[in-house]
Amino acid sequence: MASPLATLDPQPLWRHFQMLCDTPRPSKHEAAVVAKIEAFAAAHQLTCERDTVGNVLIRKPATAGMEDRVGVVMQSHLDMVPQKNNDKQHDFLTDPITPVRDGDWIRADHTTLGADNGIGAAAMLAVLESRDIAHGPLEALFTIDEEAGMTGAKGLAANWIEGELLFNLDTEDEGELYVGCAGGVNVNAVFPPEWQPTGPNMAGYTLSVKGLLGGHSGLDIHLGRGNANQMAALFVARLQAAFPVQLHAFNGGSLRNAIPREATIGLALNAEQKAAVLALFTAFKNDMEARYRQTEPHLCIELEECGLPAQILSLQQSRQLIASIVSCPSYPTRMSDALPGVTETSNNLATVTLAQDAVRIKCLVRSLLDSARDDLGLALCNHFALAGASTHTDGEYPGWTPDPESALLQTMRTVYQQHYQQEPAIKVIHAGLECGILGAIYPNWDMISFGPTIRCAHSPDEKVHIGSVQAFWQCLIKGLSAVPCVNR
């Protein structure tokens, strides 16, 4: 069956996006796609280099008459978030992504699509192979591992890249120009498990929460969606308020930068409490379905009896663990005063795993202010430490401070005015663009970020709007041709 991408315009961009869909590229596993990028450069006789961390840089000379223009760096990341529905059989290390047309949108077959940031990377390849797009000296920077720590951007060498203007192609609202982004830091909490023998006359239950929308932990954190980890823990907290409950399993969430869609908890309690447990579960299920009727239409909460392992967590630790999860903020903690409607600082309670050797919790804090990021990270470390965890932070990356006097912003504003016949929206994004890191390494760069309309990134519902890709493409090529001359 022919791919639905084969008939879409601009065809060069969609053709390269098909290649990216065909090539497994989850974070930290980009070798196959890097090899294809290098082969592409060789086939088109373009200078190509790879740095020590795995980023790829391709240089293309200016088109005739554009040699005196300021050098432009186009930049996108090659990796994608690997998320799928539980009932979908898919190995992100070996299986291709299957694009599906859904009206005016392209989505995948029950997995993430990889439009974040595959559309940007495909656009760069289409520009590089073109013979009729006017541009000055051009460099294309393909970074690796953006979604799982931004190690590609962090490892970028200074003085390697020659251009002075950065076109980051990694935002998700067509028709808007982005001039700033949030920084972030991971908060890690580790509880040494207090195992004890399972007592007599105890019954086992498995609670599962699934069907949540999830989404990007920055772009979607303000939408009021359910957090599967906290929803599951809340049910246990309600049980614990009535009678003793201990844990023997907890597994929720999968990625630090995705709002958790699914979680399961294994419970152990006195078998004589069965009727009370079922009554509390029914009330809880009805309550959650009513509370999230608008935001989580596919919410599914189930409780099943199960066997018990030989060991379960102590009653005290079970209480402390559940209390720390239920009381952890996992939403915007402050909105921006300077930018109405924009989240300033937030936290995502991303993953909870109970293993034989440890209970591990990971959060991702984001903020437009590095000091606010650090303060919330410190507060969360203290929060989990009070419950008995050892804590630490890692993966810190800076934000990108807006520059309202940016010459590149004025150039792209003019391009957008001409294309849309109206002023573009100038935005700051509550997500971790690589611009913050790249700008710290190349402080002379003038930067802008734009892209097509992508919805539900980092979830199996991810989709990209077909018409917005065409508009994004037109703005990119017009922006390249509008770059000013050197020393203008």
Total tally of structural domains: 2
Output the structural class: alpha+beta
Query: What's the N-to-C terminus distance?
Result: 52 Å
Can you identify the CATH superfamily of the largest domain?
Zn peptidases
Mean pLDDT: 96
CATH fold topology of the largest domain:
Aminopeptidase
Shape: elongated
**Individual helix count:** 11
Radius of gyration: 24 Å
Strand fraction band? Answer: 25-35%
User: Main sheet, how many strands, which sense, barrel?
Assistant: 9 strands, antiparallel
Q: Quick one: CATH class of the largest domain? A: Alpha Beta
Cofactor: Zn(2+); Co(2+)
Protein name: Cytosol non-specific dipeptidase
Organism: Simiduia agarivorans (strain DSM 21679 / JCM 13881 / BCRC 17597 / SA1)
Pfam family, one: Peptidase_M20
Structural commentary:
The protein contains 11 helices and 23 strands. It is an alpha+beta fold. It folds into 2 domains: 4-182 and 400-481, Aminopeptidase (3-Layer(aba) Sandwich); 185-397, Alpha-Beta Plaits (2-Layer Sandwich). Strands 9, 11, 12, 13, 14, 16, 17, 18 and 19 form a 9-stranded antiparallel beta sheet that branches. Strand 1 and strand 2 form a beta hairpin. Helix 5 runs antiparallel to helix 6 (274-291) and helix 9 (407-420) packs across helix 11. The longest helix is centred in the middle third of the chain and has 18 residues, at 274-291.
Give the gist of this structure.
With 488 residues, this protein is an alpha+beta fold. It has helices at residues 11-22, 31-43, 115-129, 151-154, 228-240, 274-291, 315-326, 370-386, 407-420, 435-441, 466-481, and strands spanning 47-50, 56-60, 72-77, 99-102, 105-108, 138-143, 165-168, 176-181, 183-191, 195-197, 202-210, 246-252, 263-270, 300-306, 311-313, 332-335, 343-354, 359-367, 390-397, 425-429, 446-449, 454-455, 463-465.
